[in-house]
Amino acid sequence: MRFVIVTGMSGAGKSSALKTLEDAGYFCVDNLPVALLDKFADMLLDETAKIENVALGIDIRNGRGIGELAHKLKEIEAAGIKYEILYLNASNRILLKRYKETRRNHPLSRDGRVEDGIAKEREIMKFLQDQATYVIDTSQLLTRELKEEIDRIFVDGEEGERFQIAVVSFGFKHGIPADVDLVFDVRFLPNPYYDLNLRPLTGNDKPIQDFVMKHEESVEFLDKLDDMMRFLIPNYIKEGKYNLVIGIGCTGGKHRSVTITNKLAERLKQLPYSVKVEHRDIMR
């Protein structure tokens, strides 16, 4: 039996994930009160229940019950139930955009701004993200792509063989992304910002890429970074890590970091891993 706890940020795709698992034959329960988790676990141990695979949705709607979750998880583990945690995440910008499109209130911002609710939720849910077996960032995923990721992990039997990598460009003046595992500073590379013809462009544009990559230090840095990733990733997998967030930062997050992020992602996509790219500050 696979017992999957589906959780994460509100608006990141938990409902879609549960629907995908339900379609795959999982017995799904959404928003079960945390206080009932041990009783639910007892039901799973009952052979007469004949439940093969279970997906349980738990999120911030549990209110104060979220604070009891860590203790409850230890209890069901002690009872002999092995569980996996699927954590759905997305950037604050994307979550805010989704809330505005649907015109729904955030569970923690009934009397305030959605931005404040997202920030509070991210802080409260951090312990679950840290403990998660799988983390899927849905910022750039279509619903179809999310379904493919979930099928790959929970339906097709690969169970995490596809290591998930997110390569994120950012600007140091806007702050380092909170969820990055590795941070690399490319502010030592020549800056196209000082060329007035190049300044309006981004690292997605060929003139910027040509400017950055024509310098020997850029090529050498990319080679060394690629070599380091090829060493680190198999060792992360060996230790049970299923996802990696790589942050590439320059001053504003528009030129050098975007270029190196794109170039590194191109190389990583040659490996048998799932690679996603996000340019957090490119439009600032």
From TrEMBL:
InterPro entries registered for this protein in UniProt: P-loop_NTPase (IPR027417), RapZ-like (IPR005337), RapZ-like_N (IPR053930), RapZ_C (IPR053931)
Pfam families per record: PapZ_C, RapZ-like_N
SUPFAM superfamilies according to UniProt: P-loop containing nucleoside triphosphate hydrolases
Binding positions for GTP per the UniProt entry: 59-62
Record keywords, A-Z: ATP-binding, GTP-binding, Nucleotide-binding
Segments forming domain RapZ-like N-terminal: 1-155
Binding sites annotated in the UniProt record for ATP: 8-15
A molecular function GO annotation: ATP binding
RapZ C-terminal domain boundaries: 164-282
Record-linked PANTHER family: RNASE ADAPTER PROTEIN RAPZ (PTHR30448:SF0)
Protein name (database record): GlmZ(SRNA)-inactivating NTPase
Organism of derivation: Anaerostipes hadrus
Taxonomic path: Bacteria, Bacillati, Bacillota, Clostridia, Lachnospirales
